[in-house]
Structures are given as structure tokens and as C-alpha cells.
Design goal:
- Helix content is about 30%, strand content about 25%.
């Protein structure tokens, strides 16, 4: 059986301070590149969101405000780095697989990605649509 895509697949996920994409801030981000069913690259980030992390969010992802402040990098810095990594994968022709993708259009990462100039997609991908 043929697969729909034989190239790199890049998984992307965020944990945030809440469920409102307009108000929530990044706490953790992860990007995993898979080729041929094998993990080729795995990156993770811990951000200090600059606001307290509500207990409900900490109960889900396990990151407390204290840990984020002590160990995390500034959220803007993390968002810019994640955006750069995602754009780099996209430029190399990878397909992005995002968890809870409907949440992302209003996140800091997408805001940063929208400021990065990118070339048009290669013709081979022009007919693909999001599911």
C-alpha cells in the first residue's frame, strides 16, 4: 500500500497557560521530525510565559509557574526559535503535523511565523489541502 507522503513529517505541539488561544501563552513546545517511520530530530523548549500558570494548566502539563520562571527562557525568544525551526522544515519540503491545529492561528508562534518571509511552496505541494 502506497503512503500519501514519503518525505519528512514534522510533528508540532504546544502546552500553554490555558485554553483561550487569544490569551494563552506558550509554556512548552516540541518539534519532532520523522522520516520513514524513524525519528531524525527532536527539539523541546520550556518557556517562562511571563504570567502565572493556572493550576488547571499545570495539572495537565506538569509545569508550575516556579519551574517556568526558574528554568524557562523568555516566551518571545522561544516563540521566535520555534517559528524559525518550523519555517526551516517547511522550506525543506516537510509536512507539518500539528496537534490541536485549530488552536494555533492565534498563538505567539504563528504571529512570529507570519513575520518570517517564506518562498512559495514547491509545485508538488500546491494541490494539497489541510484535512
Amino acid at each position: 500500500m502506497a503512503t500519501w507522503h514519503g518525505g519528512a513529517l514534522v510533528g508540532f505541539d504546544l502546552e500553554t497557560t490555558g485554553t483561550d488561544p487569544g490569551e494563552s501563552r506558550i509554556v512548552t513546545a516540541a518539534v519532532v521530525e520523522v522520516r520513514g517511520g524513524e525519528v531524525h530530530e527532536r527539539r523541546g523548549w520550556l518557556a517562562d510565559p511571563g504570567i502565572p500558570i493556572p493550576r488547571q494548566a499545570s495539572d495537565i502539563h506538569g509545569i508550575s509557574t516556579e519551574r517556568a520562571v526558574a528554568e524557562g527562557r523568555p516566551v518571545r525568544e522561544v516563540a521566535e526559535e520555534v517559528a524559525s525551526v518550523l519555517v526551516g522544515h517547511w522550506r525543506r519540503g516537510a509536512v507539518l503535523v500539528a496537534y490541536n491545529a485549530a488552536f494555533y492561528p492565534r498563538t505567539p508562534v504563528v504571529s512570529q511565523v507570519s513575520r518570517v518571509p517564506v518562498r512559495r511552496r514547491p509545485a508538488a505541494h500546491a494541490g494539497m489541502r489541510a484535512a
